[in-house]
């Protein structure tokens, strides 16, 4: 895991889950009963910054921007360790263990992380765009997972490269695009191929 070294950035996370049954179905009642204590634990957790709630409601379960049977969880944390500790070392773990009772298995990414400036509260539209980026392009500095984490420094350097004017020699060294190397001729044995993508 990698924490942000900067007080000026926070970690945003979006998680989507497809309900097997409506929230008022008795088969989902145990999940509904866990919402209040789990959300209270999140609000009191070290490193918690903000979570999405529907206006006038204690949570966001009635918001369905990703589909009629898809609930969303959008929050901001001081760093990755704080989010990890809440997700896997608190009462939230009970929800994780029982999720197959209430939610369908996902065939594509359902959780995404990305760095945001401290004080920025991501919109649902922004969060869904990051998830779509992860699903389409795989992990990157702008959309990643716990297993494919990027530091805030890495994200900042990548943004710097994107802003760097041409030609590259005019850019500060730390924001210059990576040097392009000529491909190895087919007749010359090269190094082993790159590792596969991180899960």
What are the main properties of this structure?
disordered C terminus, disordered N terminus, four-stranded antiparallel beta sheet, globular, 199 residues, 5 helices, alpha+beta
Judging from the principal axes of the Cα atoms, what is the shape?
globular
Strand order of the largest sheet: 2-3-1-4
| Low-confidence segments | 1-6, 171-199
Quote the beta fraction: 5-15%
**Helix and strand element order:** EHEEHHEHH
Could you describe the largest sheet, including whether it forms a barrel? 4 strands, antiparallel
Q: What is the terminal separation in angstroms?
A: 14 Å
Please, how many helices? 5
Rg measurement, Å: 20 Å
Q: Quaternary status of these chains?
A: single chain
| Helix/strand class | alpha+beta
Q: Mean pLDDT score, rounded? A: 82
Number of strands: 4
Helix content: 25-40%
What are the SSEs and their pairings?
Elements: E1 9-18, H1 29-44, E2 48-51, E3 70-77, H2 80-88, H3 92-102, E4 111-117, H4 124-137, H5 152-163
Antiparallel strand pairs: 1-3, 1-4, 2-3
Concise structural overview:
The protein has helices spanning 29-44, 80-88, 92-102, 124-137, 152-163; strands at residues 9-18, 48-51, 70-77, 111-117.
Describe it for me?
With 199 residues, this protein is of the alpha+beta class. It has helices at 29-44, 80-88, 92-102, 124-137, 152-163; strands at residues 9-18, 48-51, 70-77, 111-117. It has a 4-stranded antiparallel beta sheet with strand order 2-3-1-4, with helices on both faces. α1 (29-44) packs antiparallel against α3 (92-102). The longest helix is centred in the N-terminal third of the chain and has 16 residues, at 29-44. The protein starts with 8 loop residues before the first strand and ends in a 36-residue tail after the last helix.
């Amino acid at each position: 895991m990698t924490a942000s070294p900067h007080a000026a950035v926070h970690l945003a996370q979006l998680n989507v889950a497809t309900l097997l049954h409506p929230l008022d179905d008795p088969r989902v009642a145990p999940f509904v009963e866990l919402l209040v204590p789990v959300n209270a634990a999140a609000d009191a957790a070290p490193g918690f910054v903000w979570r999405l709630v529907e206006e006038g409601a204690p949570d966001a379960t009635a918001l369905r921007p990703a589909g009629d049977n898809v609930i969303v969880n959008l929050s901001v944390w001081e760093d990755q360790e704080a989010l990890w500790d809440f997700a896997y070392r608190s009462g939230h773990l009970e929800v994780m263990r029982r999720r197959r009772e209430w939610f369908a298995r996902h065939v594509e990414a359902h959780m995404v992380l990305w760095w945001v400036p401290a004080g920025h509260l991501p919109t649902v539209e922004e969060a869904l765009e990051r998830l779509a980026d992860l699903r389409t392009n795989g992990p990157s500095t702008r959309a990643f997972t716990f297993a494919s984490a990027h530091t805030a420094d890495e994200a900042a350097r990548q943004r710097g490269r994107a802003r760097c004017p041409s030609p590259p020699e005019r850019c500060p060294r730390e924001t210059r695009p990576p040097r392009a190397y000529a491909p190895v001729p087919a007749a010359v044995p090269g190094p082993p191929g790159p590792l596969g993508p991180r899960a």
